[in-house]
Design brief:
- It is a single-pass membrane protein; Single-pass type I membrane protein.
- Belongs to the nicastrin family.
- This is Nicastrin.
- Pfam families: Ncstrn_small, Nicastrin.
- The protein is of the alpha/beta class.
- The protein has two domains: 179 residues, no CATH class; 347 residues, 3-Layer(aba) Sandwich (Aminopeptidase), CATH 3.40.630.
- It is built from 17 helices and 19 strands.
- It has an eight-stranded mixed β-sheet with strand order 12-11-13-10-8-9-7-17, with helices on both faces. It has a six-stranded mixed β-sheet with strand order 4-3-2-1-5-19. It has a three-stranded antiparallel β-sheet with strand order 14-16-15.
- Helix 5 packs across helix 10, helix 5 packs parallel to helix 13 and helix 7 packs across helix 10.
- The longest helix has 27 residues.
- The chain is elongated, with a radius of gyration of 31 Å.
- The N and C termini lie far apart (83 Å).
Length: 643
């Protein structure tokens, strides 16, 4: 976008025929288009991209969501950054075997020379339409008369060309300038992780100690900045993961299990596996408590909310399973998962030996080492999610429904069918993990709580600023609780989602300890705190009944954060094809305005008249100044007569 904003005459496009006016017939280009959300697709956008008659676009969000589906992501998400390549399972590389996201249009990866805004507020859309109808509607096939309604969009981006170029410019500025002008920033945040049995977070786990990793992603994306609801693509899986962790921590003999379990929540996975690639890198470089050799097996929860006939599909890597020892361990893993679903309202089935892994964090671990693992999804082949990485991946997409007339507090506590369904998945996974870790007792008592799942779905999808979230976070970060949840990774960290996953996990798996605020915030001063093993948080607590004061308390947990910044930026390999190199441009402001514009003829006449008046005033000033002694001479005193 232009540094001074992009301006054009508004034209409303509600059907494809309306494009003819913009692309050919309209006499007043460039046009600023108000586009119906159902027409926001690759075919239309490439037509607009190929013309100079368009100066910008405002997309009115479609309600209800487009029935045919909409995904601006790739048909093969994270292509080139997973495990499959010309050297490893070439028959599966570039989604040759399975196209995972068939509705993917790739719009998010196109370069548009004009600004594109999303209008979520129907009132804003109506204001623009009304201005268009009052001034811009073509009359009998001919152009409307002036004045015309125009719109100006401001969204100038400072970065240019590519990550390599913008990072090089930023680096030079930082090196040689006192006040550097940084033009882009790498996407970064933190992974959240915790263990069932506490480990020394600043030390190293014994080489012989085996750990089972359970993983999910916690970020999503859409075409538009910071619009990333991610209901099915992220929230359904990490909420199920959190419920699994809670169910396991309630088991009485977890401290006796022969294998530890690590609950891992990766950030930035949407952008070519930022979080998982960083954790693997840290493990390889001995910058993480675990090494790759400690990993016994890997269980990943992917998209799990849109199950068909309660079936959950188990995906494995056919290439690593050609190794006999890996095959034995994978077979054991699959059998334990299948047996754990007996009697539950979830059926686990194998996706098939010839089927590759779907896009998943597990692929980054497989790139480093043959690890037995499984990815659980609600789809056997292509995604059941028709709104992957889009603004339509909302609570409605995963069939979350509430009765009318509920208060916010009642809605928070209401147990939806979606919550019950995800709790069933969490129960099966928790039971399987218990068995996998060496648990010998009956698993029927291991049960995920649908009420907890309901609260989490409400908080992460509908309203972050709710009473439960308020009670479990630190007082000094209560400002993170915005109304509408978004799960974009961003460049300032930690983002809201990371903080909330961290504190929800601590609340569900931690212990309330009897420490004062001072002791809780400075645990190193308390001899029995075991600071290396635990994290301590002084949280707000619930509101006292009939009062505005809260009852704060101290929570001890094994929840930690680890950096989720692509190794490419640590290594200064900005053009890397091994690691993610996504950056976000900096900008000054993003805003829009509408106003009336006069005809070119009137503008020229106004300019000419203005210039004429200016010239006349200059000439008048010159002559007045030249004759000032005559025009402004002091008159004689009539009383002074000369003889």
């Amino acid at each position: 976008a232009s540094i001074s904003g992009d301006t054009g005459v508004i034209h409303v496009v509600e059907k494809e025929e309306d494009l003819n006016w913009v692309l050919a017939d309209g006499p007043h280009p460039p046009y600023m288009i108000l586009l119906d959300g159902n027409l926001f697709n690759r075919r239309v956008m490439l037509q607009l991209k190929g013309t100079s008659r368009v100066s910008g676009l405002a997309v009115a969000i479609a309600k209800p969501s487009p029935p045919q589906g909409f995904s601006p992501g790739l048909k093969c998400p994270n292509d080139g950054f997973g495990v499959y390549s010309k050297d490893y399972g070439p028959q599966f590389a570039h989604c040759n075997k399975t196209v995972w996201n068939p509705v993917g249009s790739g719009l998010s990866y196109e370069d548009f020379a004009f600004p594109i805004f999303l209008l979520e507020d129907a009132n804003e859309t109506q204001v623009i339409k009304q201005c268009y109808q009052d001034h811009n509607v073509p009359r009998d096939g001919s152009g409307p008369e002036y004045p015309l309604c125009a719109m100006q969009l401001f969204s100038h981006m400072h970065a240019v060309t590519s990550t390599v170029t913008c990072m090089r410019r930023s680096s030079l500025q930082s090196t040689f300038s006192i006040n550097p002008e940084v033009v882009c920033d790498p996407l970064l945040d933190y992974n959240v992780w915790s263990t069932l049995q506490p480990i020394n977070s600043s030390g190293k786990v014994d080489p012989e100690k085996e750990v089972i990793i359970v993983a999910t992603r916690i970020d999503s994306h859409s075409f538009f900045w910071n619009i990333a609801p991610g209901a099915e693509s992220a929230v359904s899986s990490f909420v199920t993961h959190l419920a699994t962790a809670e169910a396991l921590h309630k088991v009485s003999d977890v401290h006796l299990l022969q294998r530890n379990i690590m609950f891992t929540f990766f950030q930035g996975e949407t952008f070519d596996y930022i979080g998982s690639s960083r954790m693997v890198y840290d493990m390889e470089k001995d910058k993480f408590p675990l090494r790759l050799d400690n990993i016994h097996s890997f269980v990943e929860l992917n998209q799990v909310a849109l199950r068909n006939d309660s079936i959950l599909w188990m995906h494995t890597d056919p290439v690593s399973r050609m190794n006999e020892s890996v095959e034995v361990q994978v077979r054991n893993l699959l059998d334990i998962l299948s047996n754990s679903s007996v009697g539950a309202n979830v059926t686990l089935q194998e996706a098939g030996f010839s089927q590759p892994l779907p896009p998943s964090s597990f692929q980054r671990f497989l790139r480093a080492r043959h690890i037995p693992g499984v990815v659980l999804t609600d789809h056997k082949t292509a995604f059941r999610n028709r709104y992957y990485q889009s603004m339509y991946d909302t609570p409605e997409n995963i069939r979350m429904q509430y009765p009318e007339g509920l208060s916010p507090e009642e809605t928070l506590e209401y147990v939806t069918d979606t919550a019950k369904s995800l709790a069933e998945v969490a129960t099966v996974v928790a039971r399987a993990l218990y068995r996998l870790a060496g648990g010998a007792n009956n698993t029927s008592a291991i049960q995920a709580d649908p009420k907890t799942v309901s609260r989490m779905l409400y908080g992460f999808l509908i309203k972050m600023n709710n009473s439960w979230f308020q009670s479990i976070i630190k007082p000094d970060i209560k400002g993170i609780l915005g109304d509408v949840p978004q799960h974009y990774v961003a460049v300032s960290s930690p983002v809201n989602t990371t903080y909330l996953v961290q504190y929800v996990l601590a609340n569900l798996t931690g212990t309330v300890v009897n420490l004062t605020r001072e002791e809780c915030q400075n645990p190193e001063k308390t001899p029995s705190s075991e600071k290396e093993m635990y994290e301590y948080a002084w949280v707000q607590g619930s509101l006292d009944p009939n009062s505005t004061s809260r009852a704060p308390y101290c929570v001890r947990s094994t929840v930690h954060l680890s950096k989720a910044l692509s190794p490419a930026f640590e290594l200064r390999q900005w053009g890397s094809t091994e690691y993610s190199t996504w950056t976000e441009s900096r900008w000054k402001e993003i805003r829009a305005r509408i106003f009336l514009v006069a005809s070119k003829e009137l503008e020229i006449i106004t300019l000419v008249v203005g210039i004429a008046i200016l010239i006349f005033s200059l000439l008048a000033t010159y002559f007045i100044n030249a004759k000032a002694d005559v025009l402004f001479s002091i008159p004689r005193d009539p009383g002074a007569v000369a003889y």
